[in-house]
Automatic annotation (TrEMBL):
Pfam assignment, any one: Sulfatase
Record protein name field: Arylsulfatase J-like
Signal sequence bounds: 1-19
Keywords: Calcium, Glycoprotein, Metal-binding, Signal
Organism of this sequence: Aplysia californica (California sea hare)
Gene: LOC101848453
UniProt key word Glycoprotein: yes
Amino acid sequence: MMKLWLSLLFVVCLSAVSGSDSNRKPNIVFIFGDDYGFNDIGYHGSQIATPNLDKLASDGVRLENYYVQPLCTPSRSQMMSGRYQVRSFFAPWLVQSPDVVSVTFLQQYTLCLSMLPLSPFYNNTPCPLFLYLAYQSVHGPLQVPEKYEKQYRHIQDENRRIYAGMVSVLDEGVGNLTQALKDKGLWDNTVLVFSTGIPFNISRGTPSKRTVLLHNIDPLQTKHGVPLYNDTFHTTVRAAVRVGHMKLITGEPYNGSWVPPPGSAHKFEPDQRRPHQNVWLFNITADPTEHHDLSDHMPDMVRTLLGYLQRFNKTAVPTRFPPLDKRSNPALHGGVWGPWE
Ligand SMILES: *[C@@H]1O[C@H](CO)[C@@H](O)[C@H](O)[C@H]1NC(C)=O
Ligand SMILES: *[C@@H]1O[C@H](CO)[C@@H](O)[C@H](O)[C@H]1NC(C)=O
Ligand SMILES: *[C@@H]1O[C@H](CO)[C@@H](O)[C@H](O)[C@H]1NC(C)=O
Ligand SMILES: *[C@@H]1O[C@H](CO)[C@@H](O)[C@H](O)[C@H]1NC(C)=O
Ligand SMILES: *[C@@H]1O[C@H](CO)[C@@H](O)[C@H](O)[C@H]1NC(C)=O
Ligand SMILES: *[C@@H]1O[C@H](CO)[C@@H](O)[C@H](O)[C@H]1NC(C)=O
């Protein structure tokens, strides 16, 4: 069902902690790219050059099989709260409010919300640094200084060309930040994470213990079809869950066509779902691009996964989707997003 989840990138760089530094808590630098796609990083074979991110990836831990939310606010709310969306107060989709910082590290870590260029950087302080760098890049609108676009002259599609330039700016920014940490002597005691979503439980060389992942339950989306069963999760509601190899999707998929990544050999495939169909089951290990719906062949598996959704749904907090508050306009607050009341 053919939905390309955006943004599946993740890199952790663990530098060795040595000598007199060994008792010090590490600095933590968390960089969040926005709406940045799996096929848009150099080491995934992209036509977009990302030498700095590639270097971090080759020196660090790469997580190649995890999901993030397809939009910016939900990804950030999960990162900030450490909770699934259904358990936080953020509505499932885009929320027009700033990130709310509520991080439990606060007692231990200096919180430093910073934008490039890096201004006062802590050095020789007993207090470790926690830097959360949430880029708006490479989210639309598509805009980039010409010099970054120029290197992609060979890309015909204008949107793609500008986007590629934006990725290069992001990559350069990450390179500058890394260099600044090195220049200040902070690098060797720093854990740097680059992600477009929220990771949990990272360890080098061992499989994740996590086998169940809730993508989302979104009761605000239009209901679709009729419920498949009458005693479990309503398949009319938009939701998705991954359990081991299997992923179940329910509800209204909207545009269910399969859109290949730019420059790939795959073909565009139009929406082939049956009218009113509201359940799909995929074996992600065997079929990572979600082409072969198994829901008709494995009804017991469908029911088992619906049971997971039902249990997650029981722990959901009520959805809150307040109207836009004009007082939040950054123009009223010195040109930046921030708490406004
Ligand atoms: C990176 O640093 C260079 C040199 O200071 C600067 O010219 C450039 O604008 C910086 N790039 C970004 C994306 O911040
Ligand atoms: C991380 O792993 C530990 C040990 O397996 C587990 O207790 C904990 O719940 C996990 N945390 C998350 C966020 O998955
Ligand atoms: C659910 O469906 C079964 C089988 O069709 C039926 O016997 C049962 O009464 C239904 N339960 C409810 C609560 O509607
Ligand atoms: C989720 O739980 C709520 C509250 O119990 C219930 O009203 C709703 O029907 C459930 N949603 C689904 C899709 O089963
Ligand atoms: C779905 O999206 C594709 C690619 O953007 C587009 O070509 C197609 O017309 C859309 N289909 C529908 C039914 O909107
Ligand atoms: C899913 O695919 C994998 C890899 O082909 C296979 O090992 C596994 O048994 C399949 N799982 C199910 C439930 O079909």
